[in-house]
Amino acid sequence: MSLVNRRLFSIVQPCLQHTSHPRFVDTIKETSKPAQERSYEITRPIGLESPVLLNHKLSDTYSLSNVGNELFGAQAKERRQKYLDYDLKHSPIFDAKSFRNTNGKIFTPPISWFKSEKSLYFPDFVAKTLIGDKESLYGLLRAKYSIVRLFSSVTGDECTKTYFKVDNNDFYTSSYAQFTQEFPKFQIIDINMPTSWIKGFILSLSLSNLKKTIPPERWNQYFILPNHLLPPDIREKLHCDNQCSGYIYIVDSVGKIRWATSGYATTDDLKLMWKVVRGLSRESTNQVL
Predict the structure, then answer these.
(1) CB 72 within 8 A of CB 4
(2) pLDDT of residue 81
(3) CB 125 within 8 Å of CB 167
(4) Phi and psi of 170, rounded to 5°?
(5) Does CATH place domain 37-284 in 3.40.30.10?
(6) At the N or C end, where does the chain have fewer CB atoms within 10 A?
């Protein structure tokens, strides 16, 4: 090789090594991955490093001076690409296969609750409840520890309800009064997040029937959350990116996730969750909520 050719090669080679491939290549790789075959274990705290108010994250930037960047800027383009990547990867078929393979248990719960100083945050939001008012999630969390149900489908709803059937009692519905007596430091919060606008619209037409299945004192703790408010990156951090399944988070009064599980409750899961509830009840006696 001549001296000139060697010099040209030494210049071109680093450029070739650092050339980034198109974004769609990563997207295709993600969509080609097979469905989840088995549950994975949660061993470390999950959630966000700091509290995030979902509603205001983008709306605060809407102004006449910034509307161009918000609609056409690099950040807006990146955000739309992430949603597209997420939708392509989590197709209904992919999620359904993963749900079936794992019996809805996308992840298995940690063996105990996370310490407060190690725990990460659940996001905050403002959304309508069953009584039609707009409430802040964190506004409700300040009162007590919370068992938070998060689901987007009928199967997810059914999954999470299995965690409340204890010793022939149903703490979610018929035995809710007993639940409040046994665990006065706890409350149940529902986050129903329809997968599409049309499903949300249909849900809004059937609220009267939904109210019949929930104790009236909990109507202001049942949220209807628009699906788009929970972006893909936060779904991944909460491990709730399979919309066929349902998720349970035990969240403390400052919004930290102390324990979590998914799918249908096994016998061991059920015992573990209520062991966690009792343990955190004892913890709360030494705290001012």
Answers:
(1) no
(2) 55
(3) no
(4) -120, 95
(5) yes
(6) N
Token reading at 194: 């329809």
The whole-angstrom separation of Cα 226 and Cα 45 is 26
53 forms beta bridges with 124
Give every residue of the chain whose pLDDT is below 70, as ranges.
1-32, 56-91, 286-289
pLDDT score recorded for residue 201: 80
- Which residues does 141 contact at the CB level (< 8 Å), separation at least 6? 189, 251, 252, 253, 254, 255
Which tokens in the block code for residue 66? 């910034």
Amino acid at 264: Y
Residue 135 pairs in a beta bridge with 127
Domain residue limits, the chain: 37-284
Q: Which residue type is seen at 172?
A: Y
246: closest CA among 153, 115, 124? 153
Is the distance from CB of 225 to CB of 192 less than 8 angstroms?
A: yes
CA separation for the pair 18, 78 (Å, rounded): 21
Between the alpha carbon of residue 217 and those of residues 72, 165, 173, 189, 203, the distances in Å are 45, 20, 11, 11, 20
Instruction: At 102, list the tokens.
Output: 């794992």
List, in order, residues 6 or more apart from 223 with CB less than 8 Å away: 125, 127, 128, 129, 135, 137, 189, 190, 191, 192
